[in-house]
Amino acid sequence: MAEDINTINSNKWIDNYADYLFNYAISRVNNSDLAKDLVQDTFFAGLKSAKNFQGKSTERTWLVSILKRKIIDYYRKINSKKGKAEVRMNFYDDGENEGNWLEERVPQNWENQSEKSIETEELKNQLEACIDNLPEKYALVFRLKTIQEFETEEICKELDITASNLWVIIHRARTQLRKCMEDNWFNN
């Protein structure tokens, strides 16, 4: 009996996709606990909407699209005034507005944004310098796959390499980048 192409196997999601989804999430939110939560939310949403899976893409692609929406929702939430005021506080003690918090009076983030911007720019510059120091092919493959998010098949076809070769290059590039960043950013 042939298996329906629209059938998904959620029992294997953790084994097959958890690491990939976590790496995808951590590269976008830069917080391990948050990335884990987003992956968990992705799996849960996938289970809830499994009946909508049409088989037009792979399970992994489908799960990544769910994860992308979860990440976008997260950033929308933290960038909205409502998201910054997750905890409702009593702004008024009496009258018709008792117990309400006015959105326009949500406390603003007091962190020094200019310091963060400078540090972010310095980090970006150091990472770019480290990428520029990679062998030319490593830098190209790393940028195409990790930064520009091209599909593996597209990169392999364009550069005339195998998928396994691509992943070896990505691994070596990441290893060299980690060493470069440790030497030039984290240990300074």
TrEMBL record:
Keywords: DNA-binding, Sigma factor, Transcription, Transcription regulation. Gene3D superfamilies: 1.10.1740.10, Winged helix-like DNA-binding domain superfamily/Winged helix DNA-binding domain. It comes from the Bacteria. Transmembrane segments: none annotated. One of its GO terms (molecular function) is sigma factor activity. The keyword ATP-binding does not apply. InterPro entries: RNA_pol_sigma-70-like, RNA_pol_sigma-70_dom, RNA_pol_sigma70_r2, RNA_pol_sigma70_r4_t2, RNA_pol_sigma_r2, RNA_pol_sigma_r3/r4-like, WH-like_DNA-bd_sf. One of its GO terms (biological process) is DNA-templated transcription initiation. SUPFAM superfamilies: Sigma2 domain of RNA polymerase sigma factors, Sigma3 and sigma4 domains of RNA polymerase sigma factors. Residues 14-77 form the RNA polymerase sigma-70 region domain. Residues 125-177 form the RNA polymerase sigma factor 70 region 4 type domain. Belongs to the sigma-70 factor family. ECF subfamily. This is Sigma-70 family RNA polymerase sigma factor.
